[in-house]
Design goal:
This protein is α+β, with helices and mostly antiparallel strands and 331 residues long. The protein contains 9 helices and 13 strands. It is globular.
Length: 331
């Protein structure tokens, strides 16, 4: 196996369908994207793990959105990790890579050495979909639940979309023979095809009354869903993260009796949409007095992008709703 073959599987999402089970899914592999996301800040290991899991979920879910759309996953918590935000920007045209970014805010004094999910507390998990200018963004929210972020995502799809969904994920630092240590992540997403579900109207059997797969699918659908999940339970960590097994080979190994059918692979890259213009727009609601309170001793207003680390230095007289239309000199 050549290095080129291995790299071809990284930072990609492969959509598929199980024709015999009425189930669709995706296989994602991330490495360079994850390294680029995590190097923006000096995160403690538990926070790194949470961001890695959120990024992997974002790649798996985001692949379904249409060109030029944006999908965001957000988590707000009262725990040591206060917020995790990730964005998936769909390609602007067919054949181009999608772009991703993510970051977390946290209280260093409250981050322990234990399980990553234990750094969270009461809060919510949200999915936001922006379809572009002139549309109203969609937002769905579910409580933080389960023992991992993937459980929150599964609860969201069951509760908000009434779609049984399952994630098998693996992520962490990896070192291949002769190579440097770097992040790798891989996962499989299974989702039952959309159907009307009259059985799911009166609350669910999950924690706090949340819907679960057993509340949504019945009969042959429930049997198919259970069988596919049983097969996914046999997946091994090294199969998820590669690089020894390609996504297509993994699907054949797991689901060969379910008639797996693969579609075009979607490449994913690290990317941010921040710009000086966006910073100026965000400050346009403030008066000159407000801008003066943000001005440093050096006589400038600074702004940093949490996603990509970009640093902006702006002349205060060019900012806010009192500023002239011409932006003036910036640094």
């Amino acid at each position: 196996m050549t290095l080129g073959q291995r790299l071809a599987w990284d930072d990609t999402v492969l959509p598929f369908q199980l024709d015999h089970a009425d189930i669709r899914g995706r296989v994602a592999r991330l490495d360079g994207v994850l390294d680029a996301i995590l190097k923006q800040h000096d995160y403690p290991p538990p926070v790194e793990a949470l961001i890695a899991e959120m990024a992997l979920l974002t790649a798996l879910i985001g692949q379904t959105i249409k060109l030029r759309w944006k999908l965001s996953l957000q988590l707000q918590s009262k725990g040591g990790v206060r917020r995790i935000a990730s964005d998936y920007f769909a390609p602007t045209r067919e054949g181009e890579p999608a772009r991703m970014r993510a970051y977390a805010s946290f209280d260093p004094d409250r981050i322990g050495d234990g399980d990553a999910f234990a750094q969270l507390d009461e809060g919510y998990f949200a999915v936001l979909l922006d379809q572009g200018q002139g549309t109203t963004p969609y937002q769905g929210i579910t409580p933080i639940t389960g023992k991992a972020l993937r459980n929150c995502a599964e609860a969201y799809f069951a509760q908000s979309e009434q779609l049984p969904t399952r994630f098998a994920l693996s992520f962490g630092r990896s070192t291949e023979q002769g190579g440097a240590e770097h992040w790798r992540a891989g996962g499989v997403m299974l989702q039952h095809m959309p159907k009307a579900s009259p059985f799911a109207k009166d609350g669910g059997s999950g924690k706090s009354g949340l819907l679960a797969a057993r509340d949504i699918v019945h009969g042959d659908d429930a049997e198919n869903w259970g069988r596919a999940n049983h097969l996914l339970d046999t997946v091994e960590t090294l199969e998820l993260i590669g690089p020894s097994v390609s996504p297509a080979d993994l699907l054949v190994r797991l689901f060969h009796e379910e008639g797996p059918r693969v579609f075009e692979t979607q490449p994913v890259r690290f990317g941010c949409t921040c710009s000086e213009e966006r910073v100026r727009n965000s400050l346009s609601i403030y008066s000159a007095r407000d801008i003066a309170s943000m001005t440093t001793a050096e006589g400038i207003v600074t702004a940093d992008c949490q996603f990509c680390g970009a640093h902006y230095r702006l002349a205060p007289e060019t900012l806010g709703f009192d500023a002239p239309e011409a932006p003036g000199d910036t640094e």
